[in-house]
Write a structure and sequence with these properties.
50% helix, Arc Repressor Mutant, subunit A, alpha+beta, 3-stranded antiparallel beta sheet, homodimer, DNA-binding
Chain lengths: 107, 107
DNA sequence: CAGACATATTGATGTCTGTCAATATCTAGG
DNA sequence: CCTAGATATTGACAGACATCAATATGTCTG
């Protein structure tokens, strides 16, 4: 899976994927294949500090608190977001490496 | 959406996505968020000629012909595959630009 | 045009998923 | 400890989706 070392911007699909690899990748991709989750990631990624409080994520997407909490959990479990408890609040940041995994696959 | 011109390997999520953009991107991502479809794309992308007959895609994924046909349709409608009828056979190739769209978003 | 073969469509079914209301859990302050 | 506020979990439900068997459509060849 790692015979593709041409640095940057080259397609990672140079060999047929095994079903196991395809399953793992599909799981990662499913996490970002939802409009609300894409919005959440983009909001966090584009924030000045690179981190956003969960309390500031409900309004922008216009959904209920439990629903946003659910999406944040899905993204965190996929390794795309990282969660840090800070007092009463939960702060989320983006794991760039995890996104790069996707970029390199399709780059 | 295009104020990000740092050539290669830079994250495209520099600004919050609108719901419309997020919807469009999610639709594209959903197309590749399935293990079977990932396998199909990887098989076609890694083939010598860059194109594969549909008749050669059923066996590798181990599913029925209608199911494979359905997956190919989903990928084609998402613009990820291109279809060319050649006699009785249908040949599929990968649209690299469409995959690059994903790569640039997460790169 | 008739038969053979490749591909697509239809219909049915079980599973997964996004959403919310209600409720529970956690954390800080008094 | 008790209250208030933030976040997570549970249960329910509607819609989406992957899959297959059966069938239809398309395309070449004789």
């Amino acid at each position: 899976m790692a015979d593709q070392l041409t640095a940057c911007c080259s397609n990672g699909l140079t060999t047929p994927l095994s079903r196991e690899d395809a399953d793992a990748l599909a799981q990662l991709l499913k996490a970002v294949s939802d409009p609300v989750r894409l919005q959440l990631v983009s909001i966090i990624a584009s924030s000045p500090n690179g981190e956003v409080c969960a309390c500031d994520l409900t309004a922008p997407v216009g959904l209920s608190q439990p629903t946003v909490s659910h999406h944040l959990k899905v993204l965190t479990q996929a390794g795309i977001l990282e969660r840090e408890q800070r007092g009463t609040w939960a702060w989320f940041s983006v794991n760039g490496d995890r996104l790069s995994t996707i970029a390199q696959l399709f780059g």
